[in-house]
């Protein structure tokens, strides 16, 4: 029998991950674990694996590492960040309503909305968006595809359409993720304005495929909508798993993501 690991499954607007406290359990090969555990029929079933641990920089309280369902390591995840805030507080690992979380795209500030000792929702300061296409991408190719490139610490490409529910996002999303315009691959959002400051969005996540929601994708979509005059700087992003509120502040230029976080169940599984 292999080593057994205790885990918690959580989701943020349907974006579900397996969470492991690495101060208690060592995951020697998180990429392999993410691939095996993410499978729906032979594993736990999820969008990937999130490791919660001690930071290796002095200005952070905790550290988050994320491994997608294909084993690739992600830079950042807004939904997972919110879940970590709820996990840390409700499991008694912190008593603060403000957490500095180290991620692969820098420190993110989590602000917890606490009511009766429960975290009702979490706001994540996602930092400033990056609009200019980085040098490693080919902007001419990218722009020719008809969308808007926004980086929220990880790359997103947003396409607006009249009806996103009739689109074959699996086919188009996979093609665009691996398009030559994006040598490091890209997350793809398909967005539709459905009301004033309200945008329906479907997601193809780099390394995971179709997901119910994507926090950084919601932020990137809101920024793209504001840039193109489709919305104001505060927008509700309606995803398959729920609605996220995004505000692109005109004061500090940061993007703030607010939404729920939910425990699903605890379990025990062997290391692959």
Tell me how many strands there are. Answer: 17
Order of helices and strands: EEHEEEHEEEHEEHEEEHEEEE
Largest sheet: 17 strands, mixed
What is the SS-derived class? alpha+beta
What sort of overall outline do the alpha carbons produce when their principal axes are compared? Answer: globular
Mean pLDDT: 93
End-to-end gap: 11 Å
Could you tell me the radius of gyration in angstroms? Answer: 18 Å
Which runs of at least 5 residues are low in confidence (pLDDT < 50)? none
Per DSSP, the total helix count is: 5
Approximately what portion of the residues adopt beta-strand conformation? 35-45%
Helix content: 10-25%
Descriptors:
alpha+beta, 17-stranded mixed beta sheet, 5 helices, 17 strands, globular
How are the secondary structure elements laid out?
Blueprint: E1 4-12, E2 15-21, H1 30-38, E3 48-53, E4 62-68, E5 73-74, H2 78-90, E6 98-103, E7 106-115, E8 118-125, H3 139-144, E9 148-151, E10 155-160, H4 169-177, E11 187-195, E12 198-205, E13 209-211, H5 215-227, E14 234-239, E15 242-248, E16 255-259, E17 262-270
Parallel strand pairs: 2-3, 4-6, 10-11, 12-14
Antiparallel strand pairs: 1-2, 1-17, 3-4, 4-5, 6-7, 7-8, 8-16, 9-10, 11-12, 12-13, 14-15, 15-16
């Amino acid at each position: 029998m292999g080593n057994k690991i205790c885990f918690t499954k959580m989701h943020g607007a349907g974006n579900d991950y397996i969470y492991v406290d690495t101060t208690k359990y060592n995951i020697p090969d998180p990429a392999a674990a993410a691939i095996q555990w993410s499978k729906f029929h032979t594993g736990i079933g999820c969008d990937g694996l999130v490791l919660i641990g001690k930071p290796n920089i002095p200005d952070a309280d905790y550290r988050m590492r994320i491994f997608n369902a294909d084993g690739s390591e992600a830079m950042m995840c807004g939904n997972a960040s919110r879940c970590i805030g709820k996990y840390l507080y409700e499991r008694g690992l912190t008593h603060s309503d403000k957490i500095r979380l180290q991620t692969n795209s820098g420190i993110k500030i989590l602000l917890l909305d606490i009511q009766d000792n429960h975290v009702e929702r979490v706001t994540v300061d996602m930092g400033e968006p990056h609009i200019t296409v980085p040098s490693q991408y080919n902007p001419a190719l990218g722009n020719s595809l008809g969308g808007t490139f926004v980086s929220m610490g990880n790359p997103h490409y947003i396409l607006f359409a009249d009806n996103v529910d009739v689109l074959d996002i699996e086919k188009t999303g996979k093609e665009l993720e691996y398009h030559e315009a994006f040598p490091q691959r890209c997350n793809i959002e398909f967005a539709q304005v459905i009301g004033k400051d309200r945008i329906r969005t479907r997601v193809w996540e780099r390394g995971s495929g179709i997901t119910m929601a994507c926090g950084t994708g919601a932020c990137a979509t809101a920024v793209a909508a504001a840039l193109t005059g489709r919305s104001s700087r505060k927008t509700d992003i309606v995803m398959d798993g729920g609605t996220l509120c995004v505000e692109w502040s005109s004061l500090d230029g940061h993007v703030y993501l607010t939404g729920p976080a939910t425990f699903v169940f605890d379990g025990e599984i062997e290391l692959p």
